[in-house]
């Protein structure tokens, strides 16, 4: 397992940090862990910009999934599993079909659907230390 720690001192650093995350990751499935309001969607927005998403990027809190197109007609999938109540809803979403592809998939609140997560992914834990966001990255395989 490879690991990396990134300290975010300013929101202005997010474009560079998105580049670091994509370069570090060995996988296109990226799972985000962290408390409510810690910045998961903000970081995902920067990752989408780095991947040249052409669509409007927004939180999928109510839709649960947002599908974005990139300028090379690829897709980026963004999931927010916070509102799911049971595993039947995961099946209803078709999550297994979505996650079993070659697109980038960003998943917020993955602990809710842990039994559906693939074996290989990048885990990003977001913490607050000394008023800065800290990202703990770990390639899981």
**What value does the Rg take, in angstroms?**
14 Å
Largest sheet: spatial strand order:
1-7-6-2-5-4-3
Main β sheet profile: 7 strands, mixed
CATH homology superfamily name: P-loop containing nucleotide triphosphate hydrolases
The total count of helices amounts to 4
CATH architecture grouping: 3-Layer(aba) Sandwich
Order of helices and strands: EHEHEEHHEEE
Q: Helical proportion? A: 10-25%
What percent strand? 25-35%
CATH topology: Rossmann fold
Average pLDDT level:
93
Terminal Cα span: 7 Å
CATH C-level class is: Alpha Beta
Total strands:
7
Instruction: Give the overall shape, derived from the CA principal axes.
Output: globular
Poorly predicted sequence stretches spanning 5 or more consecutive residues: none
The figure for the number of domains is 1
Structural class: alpha/beta
Describe the structure.
Helix content is 24%, strand content 32%. The chain is α/β, with parallel strands linked by helices and 141 residues long. A hairpin with a 2-residue loop joins β6 (121-129) and β7. The radius of gyration is 14 Å and the shape is globular. The mean pLDDT is 93.
Brief summary:
With 141 residues, the chain is an alpha/beta fold.
Question: What are the key terms here?
Answer:
141 residues; alpha/beta; seven-stranded mixed beta sheet; single chain; Rossmann fold
